[in-house]
């Protein structure tokens, strides 16, 4: 949960919807107690600006009633309790409530979910699949909802629709469908149908008892269904008050979004449990937009019911935003970094095998990107059985090279056991300045780019000389910002880092240093990690230290990587990115700083597309990539105005 003034705006207009799942205290067959407890939970949810709340299966009566379901007294009490709850919700006005009850229709009893709003009972969804083995004997009491057809039920003089085909409840801020417990466990969960008819969230009213190991499997079903459907999944299961005779329930509530767990309840609690999350409707819809297998069924047969949702402007968010979306979470580092390193390595290996080349040429600056690229090349040569002497590492000191980076470059190459070459670019660049009539005292873009292009020329020509392949070192963040000299460091024969953003470069190198290398080499890598990012194209300061620091010019890479991830992965508009970045980095940057660098990001991203349109091949390592051959197709001359206007 995050609190910040940035959230003091309509979060629904920003694409979020606040939902909750609850496992309330209850007593078996005590409708009054259960209804009062549901009301109490609703009151608490309203204080947290919850817009939709879901309760467990048969939450009005309890699930464990057995043959008492056949008793007319219980059936009638459940119905009057539903009417009482509906009147209560009408008074509250600002919340949608989903509850479960047994409902007699004609001469059959159904296990249904009832949707309540300020307009009354707006829809009934029957359970389709009834478990009937081991401890579950639902077919003894209930009829399957698959054969109920489609008609209206009269409840307290209200006409309420019910349908065996299901329903989609629609609003300007998000649409939802409903399934009940066992429906999730079937080969074809009914929730898939509302998704194909534009639902964003599935609510599941459940009464799933606990067995050793069952919770983990049940959670995996919830996560998988939300991922498969590119949806949110809100699961509310019966609490310990349901426990009776041979069964024990735990109140397992789960909210997931597109395969990611947002929150889960404390299990085996004696109190009513409520979990709340802000669902990112916009991101879910973006994923369905780009996934052409999820096609909106415009002529769908599910009933669509308009659902009144009152917009909210809360002071806090029930959601966190990861400031480092490219970096693996704790516990997943080894697997993720191993995969990443292998993808880079095997991508380069394929290129070498295909071209029949057994030599590589790489520029080593003593900076982070060339360090990672060299580590990839070394591992690739070891994999293919090529001698490391066939790797030609070339350090090319120029006007801005410092002793620290030069020393680290040479030490790293020697430690790796590759062939070390040193070729100074100073004389060649000075001669070039003379040829084009440039005053070397003027430290402008010509001064800088001439050095970068000279280095690339050396690498290319040396590769031709030895019959090698030039391995590029530039990372994806630089490609996004255009922080590369066109036909300079922008160019190579294969760019192993082209799919790796700067924040991930740092994390990967640190992991390699800590887990893959000897102490001496690890020490070199840690000093490189502590070195400021710089192209070293301007002279050092009076103390011989780096004067040209990249992040002073383009802004913090951690911000730009966050912007890049939100823009490319989710298609977010600027005001959403600004909102989320303000929350994610609230301890580190002010809103004004974030706004400033977001403006820089968009300006550079649009202006520098022409460099990405002709970037070299390189391995795709994650969901965000800027290759024009598969992941990102953008005209080089697109106008920026729409995006910058929204930041002002």
From TrEMBL:
Biological processes annotated in GO: NAD+ biosynthetic process
Pathway involvement of the protein, from the record: Cofactor biosynthesis; NAD(+) biosynthesis; NAD(+) from deamido-NAD(+) (L-Gln route): step 1/1
Top-level EC class as recorded in UniProt: ligase
Residues holding deamido-NAD(+): 449, 478, 483-486, 611
Chain ranges of the CN hydrolase domain: 17-281
Gene Ontology, cellular component aspect: cytoplasm
Entry's EC annotation: 6.3.5.1
Residues annotated as binding L-glutamine: 208, 214
Gene Ontology MF annotations: ATP binding; glutaminase activity; NAD+ synthase (glutamine-hydrolyzing) activity; NAD+ synthase activity
Domain of life: Bacteria
Reactions it catalyzes: deamido-NAD(+) + L-glutamine + ATP + H2O = L-glutamate + AMP + diphosphate + NAD(+) + H(+)
Active site as annotated: 57 (proton acceptor), 127 (for glutaminase activity), 181 (nucleophile)
Record key words, sorted: ATP-binding, Ligase, NAD, Nucleotide-binding
InterPro entries: C-N_Hydrolase, C-N_Hydrolase_sf, Gln-dep_NAD_synthase, NAD+_synth_C, NAD/GMP_synthase, NAD_synthase, Rossmann-like_a/b/a_fold
Residues the record lists as binding ATP: 363-370, 473
Family recorded in the similarity comment: In the C-terminal section; belongs to the NAD synthetase family. Belongs to the NAD synthetase family.
Function, as annotated: Catalyzes the ATP-dependent amidation of deamido-NAD to form NAD. Uses L-glutamine as a nitrogen source.
Protein name, UniProt field: Glutamine-dependent NAD(+) synthetase
Organism: Fermentimonas caenicola
Gene: nadE
């Amino acid at each position: 949960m995050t609190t910040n003034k940035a959230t003091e705006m309509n979060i629904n207009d920003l694409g979020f919807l606040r939902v909750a799942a609850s496992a309330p205290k209850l007593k078996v067959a005590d409708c009054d107690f259960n209804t009062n407890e549901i009301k109490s939970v609703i009151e608490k949810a309203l204080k947290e600006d919850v817009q939709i709340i879901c309760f467990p299966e048969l939450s009005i009566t309890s699930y464990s009633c057995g043959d008492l379901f056949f008793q007319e007294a219980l059936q009638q009490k459940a119905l009057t309790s539903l009417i009482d709850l509906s009147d209560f919700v009408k008074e509250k006005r600002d919340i949608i409530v989903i509850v479960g009850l047994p409902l007699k229709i004609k001469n059959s009893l159904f296990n249904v979910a009832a949707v309540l709003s300020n307009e009354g009972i707006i829809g009934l969804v029957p359970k389709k699949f009834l478990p009937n083995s081991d401890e579950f004997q639902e077919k003894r009491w209930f009829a399957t909802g698959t054969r109920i057809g489609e008609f209206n039920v009269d409840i307290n003089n209200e006409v309420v629709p019910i349908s065996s085909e299901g329903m989609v409840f629609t609003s300007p801020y998000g649409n939802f469908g409903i399934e009940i417990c066992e429906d999730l466990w079937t080969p074809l969960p009914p929730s898939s149908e509302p998704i194909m008819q534009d639902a964003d969230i599935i609510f599941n009213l459940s009464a799933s008892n606990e067995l050793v190991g069952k919770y983990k499997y049940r959670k995996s079903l919830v996560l998988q269904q939300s991922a498969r459907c590119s949806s949110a999944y809100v699961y509310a299961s019966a609490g310990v008050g349901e426990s009776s005779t041979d069964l024990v329930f735990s109140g397992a509530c789960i909210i997931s979004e597109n395969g990611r767990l947002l929150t889960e309840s404390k299990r085996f609690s004696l109190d009513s449990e409520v979990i709340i999350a802000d669902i990112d409707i916009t991101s879910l819809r973006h994923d369905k937009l780009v996934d052409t297998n999820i096609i909106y069924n415009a002529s769908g047969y599910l009933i669509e019911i308009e659902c009144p949702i009152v917009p909210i402007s809360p002071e806090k968010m029930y959601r966190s935003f990861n400031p480092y979306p490219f970096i693996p979470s704790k516990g997943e580092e080894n697997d993720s970094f191993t995969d990443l390193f292998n993808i880079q390595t095997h991508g380069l290996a394929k290129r070498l095998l295909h071209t029949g080349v057994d030599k590589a040429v790489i520029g080593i600056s003593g900076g982070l990107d060339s360090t990672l690229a060299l580590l990839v090349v070394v591992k690739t040569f070891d994999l293919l059985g090529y001698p490391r002497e066939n790797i030609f590492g070339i350090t090319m000191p120029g006007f801005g090279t410092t002793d620290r980076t030069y020393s680290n470059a040479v030490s790293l190459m020697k430690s790796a056991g590759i062939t070390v070459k040193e070729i100074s670019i100073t004389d060649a660049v000075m001669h070039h300045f003379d040829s084009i009539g440039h005053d070397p005292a003027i430290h402008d873009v010509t001064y800088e780019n001439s050095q970068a292009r000279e280095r690339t020329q050396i690498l290319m020509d040396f590769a031709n000389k030895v019959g090698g392949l030039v391995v590029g070192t530039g990372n994806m963040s630089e490609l996004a910002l255009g922080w590369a000299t066109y036909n300079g460091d922008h160019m190579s024969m294969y760019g192993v880092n082209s799919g790796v953003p700067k924040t991930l470069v740092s994390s990967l190198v640190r992991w390699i240093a800590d887990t893959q290398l000897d102490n001496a080499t690890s020490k070199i890598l840690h000093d490189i990690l502590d070195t400021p990012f710089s192209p070293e194209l301007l002279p050092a300061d009076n103390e011989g230290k780096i004067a040209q620091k990249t992040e002073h010019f383009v802004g913090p890479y951690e911000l730009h990587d966050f912007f890049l991830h939100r823009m490319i992965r989710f298609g977010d508009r600027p005001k959403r990115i600004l909102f989320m970045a303000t929350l994610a980095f609230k301890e580190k940057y002010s809103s004004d700083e974030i706004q400033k660098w977001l403006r820089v990001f968009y300006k550079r991203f649009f202006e520098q597309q022409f460099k990405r349109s002709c970037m070299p091949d390189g391995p795709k390592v994650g969901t965000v990539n800027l290759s024009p051959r598969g992941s990102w197709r953008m005209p080089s001359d697109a106008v920026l105005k729409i995006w910058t206007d929204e930041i002002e």
